[in-house]
Amino acid sequence: MISSVLVPMDGSEMAERALRYALEVHRDAAITVLHVVGEPSSMMGRATGIALADDPQAAAQEAASDLFDRAREIAAESDREIETVVRVGHPARAVLNMTDDFDAVVVGSHGGSLADRLLVGNVAEKIVRRSAAPVTVVR
């Protein structure tokens, strides 16, 4: 029996579909939404700002707040509550580091833009290949 499900979300429509699927199919399971803020890079993106913040965990939580609010709205449509977790790091690695703690993973097939589709599709593929828990990919 599946009692805990991890749903990685990146703000894309596919990630929202994955959450809706998890809520519908795993009605009795605890659902945890994970958002991963990328690793710091020389490009000085959002993750670098978070890494340099006085309180990186609080900065990461703030960066994920809109996404988590949207995830809670989706869960409320099904009269459900969710747990939320934010991590800083490489998306696939961060998800894979958590799969031992869950009975299943439900992931969107890819993100919204072409760049997201290439990156997130690659993330979904890595999760499918290496996850300790069974993975459902939602389109």
UniProtKB/TrEMBL annotation:
Every copy of the UspA domain together lies at 1-139
SUPFAM superfamilies attached to this UniProt entry:
Adenine nucleotide alpha hydrolases-like
Annotated Gene3D superfamilies: HUPs
The domain of life is Archaea
Write down the Pfam families for this protein, in alphabetical order.
Answer: Usp (PF00582)
Query: In which family does this protein belong, per the annotation?
Result: Belongs to the universal stress protein A family.
Instruction: Give the matching PANTHER family.
Output: STRESS RESPONSE PROTEIN NHAX, UNIVERSAL STRESS PROTEIN
Protein name, UniProt field: Universal stress protein
Q: Which organism is it from?
A: Halorubrum ejinorense
Q: What lineage is on file?
A: Archaea, Methanobacteriati, Methanobacteriota, Stenosarchaea group, Halobacteria
